[in-house]
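cron nightly-structures :: item 1 of 1
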Amino acid sequence: MTIPIITALNDRFRKTLFGGKVLLTAGITAFSQEQQQAILAQIQSFTDFTSENDPYGEHDFGTFEYHGVRIFWKIDYYDLSLTYGSEHPEDPTQTVRVLTVMLAEEY
């Protein structure tokens, strides 16, 4: 079963921010550098996975409040060219993980 492997890869990437790409939307980049770092730190320490926000157990999505603003983050799986979705997200040699951080209103 590949779900535990995908979950472990997502957790490692999310906690370290290494092993993939991190994209911040315009709404997030409007915050100061210090605020952006605080938002990323919240994502790195995120543990509030539930059946509602993580129905497949992959730890690929989360949401939280930052200074009264709703933040979403999502991990997607792309092929190595970043053109298509990866057919094998359990295989880091065939997959680039992309963490997108956005304001809920940008979703």
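cron nightly-structures :: done
The two ends are 30 Å apart (CA to CA).
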